[in-house]
């Protein structure tokens, strides 16, 4: 394998494989490599092994725009998504360009040579690769450690205490009493999955409620269309249908939150037992989409509650005991297993240090150009998906834009391109989102601006038009 490539991609997950596939199909002749820290591809979809792990977005928008998700499954299990990602890598020859066991620790840009020198740790030794363009596709999660707050007395607990990010292979929950701490996407996935696979009883213990919306597990429109027009066309139509529904729900949530609150509550009441205290356990204090809304296929969480095999408790932990947890209300929850589905940590660019001409780049001091490049950092792009829609919708747009950028650079005979920040552009948070993992790490992230092209709208329909038509000689990108 060459020590120099035109484009070096960091991460062989959903984003990295998609980025490489775009290069392979849209920019032939480009040499590239994908550096993957782990021994296998798949990223999130290989790392997370907890029961029931699945998508929290529909697969007809989480799938790549250029490669249809086959079938009518709306929210797919992790194994199916992993197969889809790896099949995409094989189809476009990306699998042959992945270098496994490469933990990227730093990257240095030299303007004299117009190249990046990327350092990766491989089997305990440093190895370098040079590239004309660097593309970070490692997402923004810390894949070493999830968010694990310390609970009073947790050392006294005689049962198993596990975090979903590090699910033990030997954990047998059949016939066991389980407490799942949390109310986000992981928790609402774990509870019905553990019930279905034999847990005696599962309690979801939450400090405060989350919006949980039941959705069909299979897309009836996709199924009917496929029988008429075939897989490829039905995928395209279903994708746009779902994009429209996602966008409409988000806009309605921001403009008329009370309407969406009533809609979600009505859906919850219809599936919960008569007289259930829905306003205690399923009535958040914040507006819809201030945090990400959780989707549950065919209302599986509510069915588990209705059957009496699962329950939701809204309270705070006072302390762990030898047999479970004691809550501030005085209630005791006995458990054989406690799962801390307390969230994830963010780590921008996988923790790699960027250096430009000897100066260390401090991401929180930089401004993001179109939410995919950094001010003052040449020949560099990063992929971060939407917070209010499927990750891959944004990832595909970023990939299309980067391909245009690289093609323009080649055609114009330029060696480098860098966004140059205007001092008059005011700063705003890159992720205007109230989720805990964002609040904990917002001080480490780049900013966005208050005007285009420095601002991000979190709107696929708008971005699809803008990014595909945006001028590359816009006065902000400096070519040399």
TrEMBL record:
Essential cofactor(s): FAD
Q: Per UniProt, what is one Pfam family of this protein?
A: FMO-like
Does the record bear Isomerase in its keywords?
no
UniProt keyword terms in alphabetical order = FAD, Flavoprotein, Monooxygenase, NADP, Oxidoreductase
Stretches of the chain forming a coiled coil according to its record: none
Gene3D superfamilies noted in UniProt: FAD/NAD(P)-binding domain
Q: Extract the GO molecular function terms from the UniProt entry.
A: flavin adenine dinucleotide binding; N,N-dimethylaniline monooxygenase activity; NADP binding
By its UniProt entry, which InterPro entries does this protein fall under? FAD-binding_MO, FAD/NAD-bd_sf, Flavin_mOase-like
Q: Which domain of life is it from?
A: Bacteria
Family classification: Belongs to the FAD-binding monooxygenase family.
> PANTHER family annotated for this entry?
MONOOXYGENASE, PUTATIVE (AFU_ORTHOLOGUE AFUA_8G02570)-RELATED (PTHR43872:SF1)
Protein name, as recorded: NAD(P)/FAD-dependent oxidoreductase
Species:
Nocardioides alpinus
Q: Give the taxonomic lineage as stored in the record.
A: Bacteria, Bacillati, Actinomycetota, Actinomycetes, Propionibacteriales
């Amino acid at each position: 394998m060459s020590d120099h490539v035109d484009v070096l991609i960091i991460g062989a997950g959903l984003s990295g494989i998609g980025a490489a596939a775009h290069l392979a199909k849209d920019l032939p002749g480009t040499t590239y490599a994908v550096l993957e820290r782990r021994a296998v591809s798949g990223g999130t979809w290989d790392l997370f092994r907890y029961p029931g792990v699945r998508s929290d977005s529909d697969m007809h928008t989480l799938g790549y725009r250029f490669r249809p998700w086959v079938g009518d499954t709306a929210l797919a299990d992790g194994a199916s998504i992993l197969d889809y990602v790896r099949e995409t890598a094989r189809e476009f020859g990306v699998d042959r360009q992945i270098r496994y066991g490469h933990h990227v620790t730093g990257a240095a840009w030299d303007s004299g040579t117009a190249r990046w020198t990327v350092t990766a740790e491989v089997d305990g030794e440093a190895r370098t690769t040079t590239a004309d363009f660097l593309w970070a596709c490692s997402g923004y999660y810390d894949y070493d450690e999830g968010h694990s707050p310390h609970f009073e007395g947790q050392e006294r607990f005689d049962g198993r205490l596990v975090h979903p990010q590090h699910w033990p292979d030997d954990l047998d929950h059949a016939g066991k009493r389980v407490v799942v701490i949390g109310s986000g996407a992981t928790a609402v996935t774990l509870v019905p999955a553990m019930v279905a696979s034999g847990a005696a009883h599962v309690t979801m213990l939450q400090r405060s409620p989350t919006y949980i919306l039941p959705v069909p597990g299979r897309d009836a429109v996709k199924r009917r269309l496929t029988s008429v027009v075939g897989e490829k066309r039905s995928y395209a139509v279903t994708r746009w249908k779902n994009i429209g529904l996602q966008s409409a729900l988000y806009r309605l949530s921001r403009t008329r939150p009370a309407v969406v609150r009533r809609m979600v509550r009505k859906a919850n009441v219809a599936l919960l037992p008569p007289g259930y205290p829905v306003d205690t356990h399923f009535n958040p204090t914040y507006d819809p989409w201030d945090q990400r809304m959780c989707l549950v296929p065919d209302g599986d969480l509510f069915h588990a509650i209705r059957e009496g095999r699962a329950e939701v408790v809204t309270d705070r932990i006072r302390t762990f005991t030898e047999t479970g947890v004691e809550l501030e209300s005085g209630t005791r929850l006995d458990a054989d297993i406690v799962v801390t589905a307390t969230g994830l940590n963010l780590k921008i660019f996988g923790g790699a240090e960027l250096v430009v001409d000897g100066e260390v780049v401090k991401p929180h001091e930089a401004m993001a150009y179109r939410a995919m490049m950094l001010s003052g950092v040449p020949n560099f792009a990063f992929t971060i998906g939407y917070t209010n829609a499927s990750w891959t919708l944004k990832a595909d747009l970023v990939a299309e834009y980067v391909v245009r950028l690289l093609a323009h650079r080649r055609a114009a005979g330029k060696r480098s391109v860098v966004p140059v920040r205007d001092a008059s552009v005011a700063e705003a948070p890159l992720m205007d989102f109230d989720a805990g993992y964002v609040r904990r790490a917002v001080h480490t992230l780049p900013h966005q601006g208050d005007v285009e092209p420095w601002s991000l709208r979190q709107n696929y329909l708008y971005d699809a038009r803008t990014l595909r038509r945006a001028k590359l000689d816009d006065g902000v990108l400096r070519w040399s």
